[in-house]
Amino acid sequence: RYISKLKEIVKHEAEKNKSQWKTMGPAKVAVPSPNGFLQKCSKEPKLAPKKKEQDGKRFLPLLPPRTYHPVIHIKKNFINKNAVAVITGEPKKPRHFCVDTRHGDKYLLEPSGLYPKYIKKKNYGVIPKYVTRRKEEMKREEEEHQARVLEELKKKALKRLSEEERTDILKALKKKWEKINHAYQCLPIITDTRYKRMRKEELELQLQQLEHDIAAIEKYKCVYIAD
Fold first, then answer.
1. What is the mean pLDDT of the chain?
2. 131 phi and psi, to 5 degrees?
3. Does the pLDDT of residue 131 top 90, yes or no?
4. 150 with 120, same domain?
5. Considering Cα of 73, then 75, then 76, then 79, what sign does the dihedral take?
6. pLDDT above 90: residue 135
7. 3-class secondary structure per residue, 183-198
């Protein structure tokens, strides 16, 4: 019996377009535009348009000047050159190895740490110049700062607190911090009202200010106050 070769293709096309015929009537397929027909040689690659010559003149390369001399490459005899370099050069020194096992396992001696190459330096144990220079600069800046502070204090006529007054103020600040910290610890855990939140924020600000003042007085031994 005759069986068409296009049977599978027709079957595949019918199954592919089957969903388009589920409604009444033919499928609503977009009709191709008559202006979109295939033109001749439309699929061939197009070349870029040629540049038009200006005033009928062709762009020719510029001529070299009269003083131009072409570079003449001289052929080198690399064999003789390498032979002379080998004869006049210094022989390569053998590298030192260290063998640490009976099987002959070896490794370089210099990077192993067994060769004392650092203590044989000329500047071993000598303080670098940049360190001494930096220390001198820091010392000079500190002296200039102290002199500037003394001049400003003389101009403003500030009073320096004695060690006893500084200690008393520090103790009073710490005592006040303990008092406020105790009040802060007694606050309720849940701050569900506006008054509780405001009270908590106020105590936190006071504690931060006291901690800042205590750290400043403990850091600086010389404290000056204005009249």
1. 82
2. -70, -45
3. yes
4. yes
5. positive
6. yes
7. HHHCCCCCCCCHHHHH
Nearest-angstrom CA–CA distance, 27 and 124: 95
Is 36 in contact with 43 (CB distance < 8 Å)?
no
Number of domains in the chain: 2
Nearest Cα to 170, choosing from 219, 134, 137?
219
Task: Choose one of 109, 125, 157: the last residue of a domain.
Answer: 157
The residue whose two tokens read 């396992």 is 105
In this structure, the answer to whether residues 137 and 100 fall within a common structural domain is yes
Range of the domain at 185: 159-225
Question: What is the number of alpha carbons within 13 Å of residue 179 lying toward its C-beta?
Answer: 8
Residue range 49-64, pLDDT digits in tens? 776 655 555 666 678 8
Q: How far apart are CA 183 and CA 181, in angstroms?
A: 5
Both 143 and 193 in a single domain? Answer: no
**Structure confidence by residue, pLDDT tens digits, 165-213:** 888 889 999 999 999 888 888 888 887 888 888 888 999 999 999 999 8
Among 130, 157, 184, give the residue marking a domain's end: 157
The closest of 189, 190, 187, 182 to 207, measured between CA atoms, is 182
Write out the two tokens for 3.
């069986």
- The alpha helices in the chain, defined as continuous H runs, are 7-16, 78-88, 129-156, 163-185, 194-219
Residue found by looking up tokens 């500190």 in the block: 142
pLDDT at 17: 64
